[in-house]
Amino acid sequence: MAKTGTIFLVGAGPGDPDLLTLRAARLIKGASLIVHDGLVDPAILSMAHSDARLISVAKKRARHTLPQEDINALLVREALAGRDVVRLKGGDPFVFGRGGEEMEDADAAGVRVEIVPGISAANGAAAAARIPLTHRDSASIVSFVAGQCKGLAEQNWAGLAGSGRTLVIYMGVKTAPQIAEKLMEDGLAPEVPLAVIENAARPQMRVLRGPLAGLADLVEREQVISPALIIIGDVTARGAASNNTAKNSAISAILQELQA
User: I want to staple 86 with a disulfide (CB 3.0 to 4.6 A). Which of 6, 25, 31, 37 is the partner?
Assistant: First the structure.
C-alpha cells in the first residue's frame, strides 16, 4: 500500500523570520513541497531548500490564484500521492487563516494533519507597534473580526469596541469607510483612537494613528495597502505614548553623549 504524506499547517507569523517557531523553521528548511499564501514574507520562503517546490496560492481581493476548495483539493492530492506538504500561512493557521477548512477536508480524505501554530497577525502587529492589546487601566477584553466578508453591513458588532475593550480588524483596508460608519452607527464615539499597522514586523512597517471618524481618510491619504491590521481602542493611544517615550529617551541619550 502506498504511503500517504502528511499535511503540515504551519503559521509563518507576521513576517519576520526571527518570529517563526522552531518547529516551523525546521519544517520549512526540510520541506520538499511548500504551498504558501501571498502574505508569507519572501525572507521566510528563502529559508527553503533550493530544490524545494514552492506553489503560491496567493489571494488578493477579487482575484484568487485558486479558490479555497481547490487549495484544499491540492493539499489532499499531493498528500495522497505520498508527499509531505508544508502549507505555509501568514500569522496563525486557525486565526482567519482558513486552516480549519483545510484540516477538515484532509481528515475526510484520511490524510494526517499536523498543526503548527504561529504568532497571529494581531499579536505580532501589536507587539511591533508597542501597542498592548490588554492593559489594566484600558482594556480587559479583546475581539477579533474580519473586515472583508460577505454581509458585513448586517453583522452585529455592537459591544465589541468601546470602554475597556480592544477591537482588532483583519482585512479591513478596502472596507475602512464601511467599518467606521458601522461602528459609529452602533454607538462608538467618533473620537475613539485607532492605529493602522501596515507590514507589521517587517523593515517597511508603518504605524498610522487617528480617530475612528478619520479612518477612511487616513487609509486613503496614506495609501495603505495589505497586509495591514486595524486596532481600535484606548490601548492605541498608550502605544503612541510608549513610542514617543522611547524616541525621547533615545534622543536624550544621544545629546548626553555629545555633551560628554
Answer: 31
Secondary structure class of 66 (helix, strand, coil): coil
Return the closest-CA partner of residue 165 out of 145, 185, 150: 145
For residues 21 and 118, give the distance between their C-alpha atoms in angstroms, rounded to a whole number: 7
Closest CA to 8 of 105, 78, 112, 92: 112
What are phi and psi for residue 137, nearest 5 degrees?
A: -100, -5
Tell me what percent of the chain is helix, strand and coil, each rounded to the nearest 5.
Answer: 35, 25, 40
Residue 37 appears among annotated catalytic residues: yes
How do residues 34-67 score in pLDDT, each as one tens digit? 999 998 999 999 999 999 999 999 876 555 568 9
Residue 247 is a catalytic residue: no
φ and ψ at residue 201, rounded to 5 degrees: 60, 25
State pTM to two decimals: 0.86
Contact status, residue 20 vs residue 89, Cβ threshold 8 Å? no
Which residues, at least 6 apart from 138, have a Cβ–Cβ distance to it below 8 Å? 132, 164, 166, 233, 234, 235, 238
The three-class DSSP label of residue 171 is: coil
From 16, 37, 84, 92, the catalytic residue: 37
- Is 146 in contact with 195 (CB distance < 8 Å)? no
